[in-house]
Amino acid sequence: xxxxxxxxxxxxLGEKVIAQFLETKGxxxxxxxxxxxxxxxxxRSGVTTTIEIKTDRWEYFKDxxxxxxxxxxxxxxxxxxxxGTKADYFIYYYPDFEIMYLISIEDIRKLxxxxxxxxxxxxxxxxxxxxxxxxxIHKDKFMTYKIxxxxxxx
Length: 154
What we know:
The protein has helices at about 1-25, 60, 80-85, 105-115, 125, and strands at about 30, 40-45, 45-55, 70-75, 80, 90-95, 100-105, 115-120, 130-135, 145. By secondary structure, it is an alpha+beta fold. The strands form two sheets. A six-stranded mixed β-sheet has the order 1-2-3-6-7-10. A four-stranded antiparallel β-sheet has the order 5-4-9-8. It is globular.
């Protein structure tokens, strides 16, 4: 439970950093959401968009660069992550590398079905299933942005 709470805290910090970045790009933050539907709701020029955000510090803590993204799709036998969300976009954020990868939910689902490597019995005590994709090999599928961790990160 301690690791889950630590991961949750890191994820919420990542969401704050992403929200701050989006505000600098003219978005208004409408809602931080705590359900699996989406993490962040934003608006710009009258258009509302929802976003699912994954914050990943694995390579920082493990001190090994894999260039992999783990994309969660199932937890406890139920759809979760990119398969359970109702968000429009997916952001994969690496705070320690200060980079964010942005892709539509439709495109990330397509990408994992085409090139993802299935991983079962992953995180949360082996309850999570998902796909691994290499961010360097498939970087052309994402919009990438440099993002400073800012003062929210300790």
